[in-house]
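for the record, two folds in this file. i put them one after another cuz i was lazy. first one right below, seq on top, structure tokens after. the second one comes after a little note so u can tell where it starts
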Amino acid sequence: AGAKKKKKKKKKGGLKQTDPPTVPLHKLFPGGVFPEGQLMDYTHANDNLWRTTSEEKRERERLEADIYNDVRQAAEVHREVRKYVNTIAKPGILMSDLCEKLENTTRALVEERGLEAGIAFPTGCSLDHVAAHWTPNSGDKTVLQHNNVMKLDFGVQVNGRIIDSAYTVHFDPKYDKLVEAANEATETGIREAGIDVRLCDVGEAIQETMESYEVEIDGKTYPVKCCRNLTGHSIAPYQIHAGKSVPIVKGGEATRMEEGEFYAVETFGSTGRGYVREDLECSHYMKNFDVGHVPLRLPRAKQLLGVIDRNFGTLAFCRRYLDRIGESRYLMALKNLCDMGIVQPYPPLCDVKGSYVAQMEHTILLRPTRKEVLSRGDDY
């Protein structure tokens, strides 16, 4: 991209995005109003069609306009960033370079300002049998290969409103069916989601779609399995996992989805056992959302907690983010915060070695009148 220097191209509306993108998005939307995601009517048997025309429900949406606009801005940033990332996520790139470019582009487009707007969680770029929560730590020399299956999972937040969306990058067509299985399963989940819908029913429908696929890789046929201990989740301000889980297999709990909730609907299809466990070096951490004041003995742990509070609050972070803001020799203090239950480590989640996992994820909003797939783009 060195040759394509950042030219600010003029268009009728004034500014146009550069290549690579550097122009903050609010400058491209002069009215400060960001585009809606994909709108879907509620179609469920519990007959929510009346909602579309209900004056009361429409009024409720007018009152939430600012919140909707914040999360739509985050979604528009996500779309622009992934469009750019797809031009550089090619075999041969260092994973650390890929993440750095993705994250710096996010920071520029959302105009990162403390906890008000920025990155919502570390860039997941888990490869092959690693399903989630892998990002390079400093000094990691992993290179993206032609035969890798990479789950690119990144998040953007504006005023704590989080977009969490992911897709699978692969270069070898032998993985097409596996990726298609995850994509279709996620679309099923989005279609089934709705106000008063039981989460277990969404999980059952997802599993049915995912497991209708089988894939042939290098002459061997595998059934595609849902990773049964991975789920989607509700999202709240500054809280990526807000308490409700969207299962991707049958037999989940009968809790219902409710009006006004945000959900990350995500599915993971695997050629392995369809069960993940924690493995490999940890990179992801997050302060526990409801932790009160915990007295700390170690001065360094106290100081590190202050850094975490100021820079990340209850948003997830990784070791590279600590390095970037000038922290060093913090591992003992970080371990202490984890041992005290203040910070939670989130190690990589892996299926069996030699297997491949694909993922697809969207953030949806159950508006009073209809469902909005906030992170939908031309790509997925």
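(here's the note) second protein begins now
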Amino acid sequence: MTSTDTTGAEQPQLFMFAGPNGSGKSTITTPMLADLPGEYINADDIARAWRDEIPDPLERNRQAARLADRQRQLALREGRSLVFETVMSTPEKVALLTQAKALGYQTTLIFVTTSDATFNVRRVQQRVILGGHDVEPDTIRRRYEGAMTLLAAAVEHADQAVVIDNSGTEPQRVAQKFDEQLELLAPIPAWVTQRLDQPWAARQASRRTLRELAGTPRFHTADAREGQQYSGVLVGRTAWHLLQRTAQGLVLHDLSLCLVPPVEEGEPLTLRYHYERGKLSRTP
């Protein structure tokens, strides 16, 4: 599976398999890996390889997550295609999509979830019985809520996306995005309407509002990676986005990926992206 850019050169690709713990990401991902380009990066695989070297599971998982992040960043800096899994419960993982697009990647999101975190808790418990790694039930529920809250933002920032409901005995593709159009696939579960379709529609309306306010359809989305900074004037904001006029042109910021200081339209604004353990944080 390859893609070319406007110059005809092969375009690097990023595939992000995302979803809450216990959704069945690995089960769905594994058969697809042979057909996907680039390096496969999975913190769980790293942690399993360190089981004897680092006995404490919490420390082992933390170190594995840090190494996986370094491997992802190295691949992006070198322009190599990559495939990785993530729970996507914090904004910094969604920011990876904006970073990759700014670097010229084609980005694909495959989001696997269930209709309720109870499914995820039970599946992780079953996984532990079979020798898999454990995750505390409260952590699963918290991460479930975080990932579902970020779903519409992730779909917005991906070039293409597939959303899979894995609540039943067989995975069901419930939504897909191609050519900037979101399509829901029947039968449509209630959670898809609430968690994806409604916030997606609100986000699209937000973008239209800011285009009309700026008087132009042309702006680019901010690269939300750690440390990126934009200075300019606030043009306008909605509940979902902020539009800023910079020396390089109009920049659209996703408010789920940044914290914005109090400022009025027409006033100067410097916005710097910063995360602590994946969560939004003020610049130190």
